[in-house]
Specification:
It holds the Pfam family FA_desaturase. The protein is globular, with a radius of gyration of 23 Å. The protein contains 19 helices and six strands. Strand 2 and strand 3 form a beta hairpin. A four-stranded mixed sheet has the order 1-4-3-2. A two-stranded parallel sheet has the order 5-6.
């Protein structure tokens, strides 16, 4: 006979957090022990552990395509369920808000907004390949003088940026209905077209989506505090503790040196190789090698070694500027703090903002100007973001949640402004007399 089911309270569950030897989480009132499973989790150990001790129903729904298949893997992990007198989510969360969002999710599914237009993504891929070929033909036809050289670098930088948005689509499983097809083509786009590993992107990016702007859970914040002081709360904490790894009151100035121009060519360029070798992910490494072979062989017929290396460095710098400005304008100016275990909607709206829609903004950002909608529905194809935006805005108005959308240039300047404000806050906290150690 089956043993009697075990019943738990939220107070019991929250003690089994990511810092505890045993880790539990809740999905649809069912309690699962992920203490051993988290290391085998396909999305990575950290992303599932970030919800240990918490309700993971909404992220579970947001990230998985075939939920019935995933539940078969969860069955051996089931240890009980919430007691009848316990709410379906933590008592600190707004019941009406959580239920309204889950109703919105059901509406989105009924409207077919999670279904993709394959032609859209095919045309996106073709325009990337066309730009890539045009870059080579430009040097072949016009020669290697400065102007055609710079045009080719700009075209190749554009290829890298646009391929970055496209791999992002496949990585989020938003193109095909089957996860395996998304995974396979993801490896081609990020590996062969960009020279980066899909495994690294999955490990890094899904943590960001699970807990955006949550320090020690969102890896995009790893630059705090070694390079930058981020957010008002963390900056005060840093100042009070008398921490000064960098002159943070000048960070809005040195951001132009250590941020946009340096991230890809001087950090990610070597780190992605370290990542795949350390984890012995030889399939990803093989895909990455095909990118470098293709690039250096095809351009070696046209350029000498010095010019070839210069072209590669220049395209990475262009890509890096594009990537940093677009990705950080939606998050750095927003609230940054430790994980407060907020409901899904509130957490994402607190950490993300939008940039106004236009054809240019959609193209240059890969539709990540709709960052709010993307974070709420990460598997939604990007061509549907504008359709769900009015529904999200309406819900925000109903519950008094701020929905931010701004012009593109304002988004860029807000990055610098927020760094300046955080630096000033740190400086004041660092130099307050009552905080000075005796």
């Amino acid at each position: 006979m089956d043993p009697s089911p075990r019943f738990f309270s939220w107070d019991e569950i929250k003690s089994y957090s990511s810092r505890a030897p045993e880790r539990w989480l809740v999905i649809d009132r069912k309690v699962y022990d992920i203490s051993r499973f988290h290391k085998r989790h396909p999305g990575g150990s950290r992303v599932i552990s970030h919800y240990a001790g918490q309700d993971a129903t909404d992220p579970f729904t947001a990230f998985h395509l075939d939920k019935n298949l995933v539940r078969t893997y969860l069955k051996p992990l089931l240890i009980g369920e919430l007691a009848a007198d316990q709410p379906s989510f933590e008592p600190n969360k707004n019941k009406e808000l959580v239920e309204d969002f889950r109703e919105l999710r059901a509406t989105v599914e009924k409207m077919g907004l999670l279904n993709s237009n394959h032609l859209f993504f095919l045309l996106s891929l073709l325009h990337i390949l066309l730009l890539d070929v045009s870059a080579w033909l430009n040097v072949w036809y016009f020669g290697t003088s400065l102007v055609p050289f710079l045009i080719t670098a700009l075209l190749l930088g554009t290829v890298q940026a646009q391929a970055g948005w496209l791999q992002h689509d496949f990585g989020h499983l938003s193109v095909f209905g089957k996860s395996k097809w998304n995974h396979w083509i993801h490896k081609f786009v990020i590996g062969h077209l960009k020279g980066a590993p899909a495994s690294w992107w999955n490990h890094w990016h899904f943590q960001h989506h699970a807990k955006p702007n949550c320090f020690r859970k969102d890896p995009d914040l790893n630059m705090h505090p070694l390079l930058f002081a981020l957010g008002k709360i963390l900056s005060v904490e840093l100042g009070i503790k008398k921490k000064k790894f960098m002159p943070y009151n000048h960070q809005h100035k040195y951001f132009f040196l250590l941020g946009p121009p340096a991230l890809v060519p001087f950090y990610l360029q070597w780190y992605v190789f370290y990542f795949v070798v350390q984890r012995k992910n030889w399939v990803d490494l093989a895909w990455m090698v095909t990118f470098y072979l293709r690039f250096f062989i095809t351009y070696s017929f046209l350029l000498d070694l010095k010019s070839l290396l210069g072209l590669f460095l220049l395209l990475r710098i262009i890509e890096s500027h594009w990537f940093v400005w677009v990705t950080q304008m939606n998050h750095i100016p927003m609230a940054i703090d430790y994980d407060k275990n907020m409901d899904w909607l509130s957490m994402q709206l607190q950490a993300t903002c939008n940039v106004n829609q236009s054809f240019f903004n959609d193209w240059v950002t890969g539709h990540l100007n709709f960052q709010i909608e993307h974070h709420l529905f990460p598997t939604m194809p990007r061509h549907n973001f504008w359709k769900v935006a009015p529904l999200v805005k309406s819900m925000c108005v109903k519950h008094g949640i701020e929905y931010q959308s701004k012009p593109l240039f304002t988004g860029f300047t807000d990055i610098v402004h927020s760094l300046k404000v955080a630096g000033e806050i740190w400086f004041k906290a660092y130099h307050e007399p009552e905080n000075t150690k005796s």
